[in-house]
Every structure is written in C-alpha cells, then in structure tokens.
C-alpha cells in the first residue's frame, strides 16, 4: 500500500515557517492536477536555468513536456537530469495594515529528483494523450493525434515523485496587535483562475464542445427548441454571415440597442457581445431558423434570468423583414414561454420594448402579456437619446389561456415556404 506522505529529506525540509509545510501525498497530487503549468529548474554548464512548461501527473510520476532540441531534454538522454520543479496556485492577495504583513494565499508543490527522457513509444503516447485530456475530458478523441514527425519533435521527461513538499498559506490578515487600530483597510482579495469565452479559430464551424462550456443551471442553457415554423438553437459566431444577410435592413434595427451593422464583421460583433453576456450568465441567446428551409432568419434571447425568483425576460429579438407577420415570431415566443413555464417552473416572464416601438407593443399584447407600466429613461438608444421602456409581463396564472390562444393562431398559419 502506498504511504500517505512523502519522506522528509534535507532538500524538502523547511528551515522556516514550518507550519506552512506538508508532505501529504494526496494534497501534492491535487495541486499538480489542478495547475496547468510549472517551472522546471536545472543546471547547464554550471549555471542555473528555469523554464516554464506543461506537465501532467500519472500515478506517482510527473511528466514534463518539451522539444527534442531543448537543452534540458538533451541533457536528460544519458543518466538523467537533476531537476527541481515548482508549481504554485495563487489563491488571494493579503492586504495588511502594515506593509510588512502584506502577503498572499497560495498552494504550492516543490519536487526534487532526477528526470529521465521517455523513450518508450507507448508510454510517450499515453503521456501526450493525458496532456491533451487535461485540457478537457474528451479532447483527445476530438482532435487529430500526432503523426510520426510530430512525435519525433516532441520530448517528454519523467520525474518520479519521491522528494516532494507542499507549502500553503490560507486565511486572513495576520497583523501585529499594535496595528489593529490603524485606519487602513485590511483584508483578502481572492483570486481565481477562470476560463473566458471560447474564441473559435477562423473557419471553425463546429460548435463549442461540452468540455469548454461552463456548467450552468437549466435556466442558463439555450437548449434547442423545435416547432413547425421555427427552430431555435444556441447562437454561435458561425451564424454571423447568414444572420447579417437575413437582417440587413434598417427597419429591422430601428428600435434595437445597436445601429444597423455595416458588414458581416459588425454583425459578428453583435453576436460576440451576446455570447460574452451568455458567458457571464446574463443572457441566453438563440438563433432562429426557418423550420421549412433551414435558413437563419433572426435571433432572440432570455435575459434577467433569475432561477431563485423563477423569472425571466424575453428580448434582444430581431427577425429578418421577409419573415415578419409569419408564424415564426409567434412560435418562437411560444417555445420560449413553454420552456420557461412548463419545463422550468417559471412564475413570471417579462418583455421590455421602446415606447416608440408600437409594432412591438402590439405584438407583445397579442401574446397575451399585460402592460405593467413605463420605465422612464430606462436605456440609451444608439443615437445617445434616452428611451422610455414599456414593460409587459405574463404570469403562470395567465399562461394556460395564452397558450391556447397562441396554439390556435399558429394552427391557422401555414409555415413559411409551404
């Protein structure tokens, strides 16, 4: 049975702040697995070198990625290369009342030993697959494996984890008692490594894979919704070209929060803004497709999503002019309302529209929503003027009758293109 701690040696035993030290094997493994990079220290020609590199842990061996032409990898070909590897996760900045007691919260691992070049092709392939899988479970099968040339150009160092120490600092400020009454702010600024919104490379049409999407509540997921007139699917940058072609009409953008996009790049910027809002949890955007032709015809969103209060708003909607006064907009709203009330248990759905946009107000009223009032100087228009916003809402008590009315209206409307 593997021991739960690493042995203490002269190199991994601290000479100060020993209360921060640990030799716990599970703690060391957890830090190494969470971190994406490390610092590899070694000596070349009598001088120190430190290189940043990628790593992955398999069992009790730490593997380090490199190039076959790099000096540490060349030095490791013979009897191995004495190295020191350091990994640090910064968890917070400590602001003390005194400058001396400013510090940081962190978790770190230092490993000493002799690293050897991995020459077994099967072991090397396993390590490189593990490196890719560390970026996202399933990524190895979702990408091309290395070919013979790429494998020949890639080197892997193996460092057995025998001489390892863990050092951590947690908690709050540790000021001197005499400084506690000083009139300076003191506390902790937490730090977290958080992923941003995935940015696809030029020409990529594949959707963002699941391992790159943040885990969200069902309220924040733009699940595909299907009707006889319209299909709603998660909005993506790949839709920008078709969306621009379908909505390149000044009248479509007349009452929106953006001016008419001059080109596809400008429409892509509008889409990117929606995706950024989705990443922040502020919006749930869908693209609208004609169910008959499959053409992209517009977009719509949820916003002000509040699972706790079981409320959501529908908006950021724009539809190409050829599809106005068809069943597409009505069915899209029906699908979104059904998702909110029937699937998620919403008690309230809200709409906001410019007080000048009478066409939108009539359309919302036809859905069965109730006008609740006017929010004065609520938002700025693209021209800088302040707009008054008319607010409508539908409650769960009103939904059953509204649903019957909407379904009857759609039953009398033939899908576009039929």
TrEMBL record:
UniProt feature, compositional bias: Polar residues: 1-15
Pfam families found in the cross-reference section: Acetyltransf_3, Pyridox_ox_2
Keywords for the protein's UniProt record, in alphabetical order: Transferase
Residues in N-acetyltransferase domain copies: 241-397
Region (Disordered): 1-20
InterPro entries from the UniProt entry: Acyl_CoA_acyltransferase, GNAT_dom, Pyridox_Oxase-rel, Split_barrel_FMN-bd
Entry's Gene Ontology molecular function annotations: acyltransferase activity, transferring groups other than amino-acyl groups
Highest taxon listed in the record's lineage: Bacteria
Family annotation (SUPFAM superfamilies): Acyl-CoA N-acyltransferases (Nat) (SSF55729), FMN-binding split barrel (SSF50475)
Protein name listed in UniProt: Protein N-acetyltransferase, RimJ/RimL family
Species name: Micromonospora krabiensis
């Amino acid at each position: 049975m593997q021991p739960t701690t690493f042995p203490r040696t002269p190199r991994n035993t601290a000479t100060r702040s020993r209360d921060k030290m640990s030799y716990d094997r599970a703690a060391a493994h957890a830090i190494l697995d969470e971190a994406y990079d490390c610092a590899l220290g070694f000596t070349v020609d009598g001088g120190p070198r430190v290189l940043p590199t990628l790593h992955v842990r398999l069992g009790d061996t730490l593997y380090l990625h490199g190039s076959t032409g790099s000096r540490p990898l060349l030095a490791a070909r013979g009897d191995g290369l004495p190295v020191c590897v350091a990994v640090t996760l910064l968890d917070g900045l400590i602001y003390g009342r005194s400058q001396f007691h400013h510090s940081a919260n962190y978790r770190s691992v230092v490993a000493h030993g002799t690293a050897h070049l991995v020459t077994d092709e099967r072991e090397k392939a396993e390590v490189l697959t593990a490196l890719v899988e560390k970026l996202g479970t399933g990524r190895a099968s979702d990408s091309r494996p290395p070919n013979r040339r790429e494998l020949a150009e890639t080197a892997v160092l193996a460092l057995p984890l025998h001489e390892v120490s863990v050092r951590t600092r947690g908690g709050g400020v540790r000021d001197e008692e005499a400084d506690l009454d000083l009139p300076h702010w003191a506390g902790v600024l937490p730090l977290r490594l958080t992923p941003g919104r995935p940015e696809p490379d030029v020409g990529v049409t594949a959707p963002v894979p699941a391992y790159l999407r943040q885990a969200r509540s069902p309220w924040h997921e733009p699940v595909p919704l299907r009707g006889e007139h319209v299909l709603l699917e998660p909005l993506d940058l790949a839709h920008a070209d078709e969306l621009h072609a379908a909505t390149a009409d000044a009248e479509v953008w007349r009452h929106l929060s953006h001016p008419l996009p001059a080109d596809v790049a400008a429409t892509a910027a509008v889409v990117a803004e929606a995706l950024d809002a989705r990443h922040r949890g502020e919006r749930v955007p869908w693209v609208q497709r004609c169910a008959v032709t499959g053409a992209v015809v517009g977009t719509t969103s949820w916003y002000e999503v509040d699972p706790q209060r079981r409320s959501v708003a529908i908006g950021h909607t724009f539809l190409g002019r050829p599809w106005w006064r068809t069943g597409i907009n009505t069915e899209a709203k029906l699908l979104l309302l059904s998702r909110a009330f029937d699937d998620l248990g919403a008690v309230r759905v809200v709409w906001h529209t410019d007080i000048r946009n009478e066409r939108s107000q009539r359309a919302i009223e036809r859905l069965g929503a109730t006008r609740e009032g006017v929010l004065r100087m609520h938002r700025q228009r693209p021209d800088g003027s302040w707009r008054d916003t008319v607010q409508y809402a539908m409650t769960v008590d009103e939904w059953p009758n509204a649903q019957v009315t909407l379904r009857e209206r759609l039953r009398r409307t033939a899908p576009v293109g039929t």
